[in-house]
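Q: Start with the shorter request: fold the first protein.
A: Done. Sequence, then structure:
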Amino acid sequence: MKTKFHILLALILFSLLFSCSEDEIPPDATDEASLSGDLSLKNFNYGMIKSYDSETIFKWNELLGSFIDEKLPIPLEAKIYAMFTISMHDALNNVVPVYETYALGNNEVDASDISKKNITQIADAAVSQAARDMMAALSPASTVAADALLNEVLSSIQEVDLKEKGVEIGKLAAQAMLQKRQGDFPFLFTSYTAPSSEPGVYQANFPPYMLPGPVWPANAVYVPNLGDLTPFGIESSDQFMGGAPYPVTSREYADDYNEIKAVGCANCTARTPEQTEIGEFWIENMASSINRLARTLILQYDLDGWEAARLIALLEMGVMDSFIASFREKAEFVFWAPITAIRAGDTDGNPETTGDATWNSMKPTPPVFEFPSTQAYGSGAASEIFRMFFKKDEINFSVTSPYKLPGVERSFSSFSEYSTEQSEARIFLGHHFRHSVEVGEQHGIELGSYVFENNFRKLKKVK
């Protein structure tokens, strides 16, 4: 009788130990049984992983942001965020291999010496060393601050062997990333001459403007070959291409033209105060904005460090690949910007478009081809990754825009609403026609789904 009681008690304790509420374990839309590959998780104990929080990951994300947010051209900022966050994810998953990695393989990792007691020390060392090395390589001006934070983290680790092992893992993760992306070309402005003066063809004939750094030069476009860059998480830059800009002589084009002409200009009376706020709010760089939202939701759902690193890395991968894929489409169509189209509206061959030679967009038009909208592409991808990660669309959250509209907060009840508002902001800014943002958002959703389903998947457990 006593034996039966002990067995029953053991079963109850076992059940309690390995069960927790939905809020305690981050939902994972990937079914472990469906994963492919031969990577295996050795000596896995979710309770051990759960004991590692996201504090150190947050510190490094915030430190990087203080040096690059709104200080670089948007695609370059996105690429730095992608390489940085993926490296931290790779480092963690070479401490204990819970998920697939990107640059530093983890199929030979044996985590048998890692326990709930020592996991924070080695994980902090690995994450911090990887983050410091990536910051020094990608943002040299941040090296002193990165060294200071690294020293702060490492000085708190008492176990010398754990510290040294974590540091080595972090160094290897950063080295692997830098080596894998060593063939990437620089992001530069390129002198542009239009292939023709036909209606619909992009013309670099609108005023340049000042970034936080260099002047965007006249008669130039920014990194028009970005679509040739090797993607991070999708198969190819043309993977999601489909559709095209509306013909300039079509009714659909005229509808989009007249809409943006009325609500996207510098002093449009038809644009509501809220639409103006939306445009100004979402002009902020995408990678940093999405990173902040991810940190908000990580705290809201109490995700552990492994899930936090995975979510942020997937998002930044999706954002960067959205730039690559959208720029590949842009180069295919070389479609003109609304500022050019509206100034030439009387000569475009469409009787439903009336030109205005003095028309200006609400905010200066960036020197990139118009179709499709990259912001819509990236917001669609990020929203889909959020949806798949949390297994639902309806989540209440709020976001801020500290660099553009400090003190203003926008609230949402779903990721779909969040994505659509960002997309429509490009209309109110006068940068993109409605068809461009709708196609961009849809392609981004497809890209986000692919990135989530094919990267950083949970490893199989050893039976």
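Q: Next, the second protein, separately.
A: Sequence, then structure:
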Amino acid sequence: MAKIFKPGAGLLYMKVGVHAQESLADIIKRKSKEIDDAGFAMWGYGGNTCHPLKMVQPFAESIAKKDEPIFLCMQEMESNHYAEPLRASEFSADGVKWTDIPAPINVLGSRYALVIDKLHAEDFSFYLDQTRVPVGPSTGRLGSNYIKGRVDKACLEVLDAPQLSNEVPRSEVKINLVAELKPPYAVYLRGQG
């Protein structure tokens, strides 16, 4: 936990659960096998709060320039994402040049994906008021002010100390699963079928 949640560290926070008719336990098993077989996996997601080109890639590259890892910290939640489990066939880091997704990798029911390896269970908690959004239109907002309502994922930078606010109560999150992002960090997906 100390390696992951330290001042200046960059992390992607994401709530996870059932996705495309598959339980989280089954997703973890499948992603672990993909990492074993292909050397990486793609963790699918949707929504623009972690847009690949506008948010995740610039953020991850700024952390990588400091020679620091970028962790995906996942909090398990109740989910009802029962969309069709359609497999994407191609990915793109820039939305222009497209590449076939390697056969061992199955990314289902998603518009985007994070490129990950080193997926493992974790058990630690942290307060969102000790994080700040470092990129995009919400730059500077406390994590506790940003992660609420329908916002369930974010690029976050860890602060030296909590920044208490009267706007929202302290918001502790329990992390159950961690992966490390690897270049190109986040990609577009297409060809679901």
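Q: Describe the second briefly.
A: Residues 24-38 form the longest helix (15 residues). Residues 9-156+163-192 form one domain.
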